Amino acid sequence: MTKLIVGFSALFLLVGCGGPSVDRSDSLVVIDAGHGGHDCGALCDSRKEKDLVLQITKKLKREFKSEGYKVYLTRNRDRFLTLGQRTRIADRKDAKVFISIHANAIGDTSRFDEVEGVETYFLQKTRDEKSQRIAARENASVLKGTDKLSQEVIIDSVLNGPKIIQSHKLAIDVQQNIMKHLKSEYDDVKDGGVRPAPFYVLVGASRPSILVEVGYITNSKERKRLFTSDYQEEIAEGIVEGVNRYLDNRKREIGF
Ligand SMILES: [Zn+2]
Known about the structure:
- Residues 87-244 form the MurNAc-LAA domain.
- The chain has eight helices and six strands.
- By secondary structure, it is an alpha/beta fold.
- α2 packs across α8 and α6 (162-185) packs antiparallel against α8.
- It binds zinc ion.
């Protein structure tokens, strides 16, 4: 009987310790911390976007690894990468998914504390003004020297593929799981939803690719939270759970 109890306890411990239940060792995730180096992203004075997204990216790396994934970061320190460098890494490494991490901002200082929330984007042309505005801000540094026509050609070249559908699905799973995690601790976090936007960092990647705007760095409540380890951890866990879910569904879809 004692043996049986010990056996049960061991089993319980095994199940309860939360180790990876699915073998993820064939799945490589490329995580891209936005901006870096001379490009500080949103807010260049005190709390910088480029530092925040690097902190979250490092937590993400740890979380993905603990689930058994292989992980590659486009940058693991404060340095600038061009658009091409970021997405080429994902292709060269044959990543399953490409995730770019950013923090959002608005220009209108009188509305800083009104606008907040988490948003996940996938690449698509859109007439939605808000998405266009956010994309324009994030695109500014990577597009230097590229004329408008070339930008259109770049986007058109990737718009008609199954990648858009897969990226959309990935975006939904990631957004849902980030919200689930954040809301368990912070019930007033705003769900900004999944949106299409012409982010150039997603253009060159020939695999399911999303861009997560983890929150508004211009909103004082959200900024304070974003720079805490706990909040960053919830975001990272949510993203990893979202990717798990997406890949598990994808496996079922393609039948093995
Ligand atoms: Zn950004």
